[in-house]
Amino acid sequence: MLKMKLKTDNLVLGDIPVFTEAQSQLLAFSTSVLPLTIIFAWLDYRKGSFGKRWAGLQLVYKRRSLAHSLLRSAIKFFPWQLGHIGAIRSAYQADALSIFLSTSAGILLLIFLLMGLLRKDKRHPADLLAGTQVQLKHQKQL
């Protein structure tokens, strides 16, 4: 009987890297959530993200600063990061904490959506904490 040895070498990396949970968490955060948080903070601080400009919207600040823009973006992307943390943790150890983290991410996302849909001023937690509001251009300021 012939035995075939499966080649595990990866053409690009040479081999499949093995990461600890902490390394995986750091890699996911530093290559996805952090760059997008910074990019969106900068865009919103300047003239608004491409989608806002295309839709004729603007981000109005009570106190316009890059720090407020970073705070808004960090809060806005927090549910996404929480989902990453839960998903990565479940790959290493499917425990109650990984389920709690993933569920919390979904609940936070739902809260953000419902607040944006149901509040008269359409503000979600990130807007409330950062002192911002998305408005139509040429609308009365905050």
List keywords for this structure.
two-stranded antiparallel ribbon; transmembrane; RDD; RDD domain-containing protein; 142 residues; mainly alpha
Overview of the molecule:
The protein has 142 residues and is mostly helical. The chain has a domain of 80 residues. Helix content is 61%, strand content 7%. It is built from five helices and two strands; from the N terminus they run ααβαααβ. It has a two-stranded antiparallel ribbon. Helix 1 runs antiparallel to helix 3 and helix 3 packs antiparallel against helix 4. The longest helix has 27 residues. The radius of gyration is 20 Å and the shape is elongated. The termini are far apart. The model has no long low-confidence stretch (mean pLDDT 89). InterPro entries: RDD. Keywords: Membrane, Transmembrane, Transmembrane helix. It comes from Streptococcus sanguinis SK355. It is a multi-pass membrane protein. Its main location: membrane.
Shape, per Cα inertia axes:
elongated
If you compute it from the alpha carbons, what radius of gyration comes out, rounded to the nearest whole angstrom?
20 Å
Total helix count?
5
Multimeric state of these chains?
single chain
- What is the mean predicted local confidence, pLDDT? 89
Class inferred from helices and paired strands:
mainly alpha
Regions with little confidence, pLDDT below 50 for 5+ residues: none
What is the string of SSEs from the N terminus onward?
A: HHEHHHE
Major sheet: arrangement of strands: 1-2
Query: What's the helical proportion of residues?
Result: 55-70%
For the termini, the CA-CA separation is 78 Å
Number of strands: 2
Please outline the major beta sheet: 2 strands, antiparallel
Share of β-strand residues: 5-15%
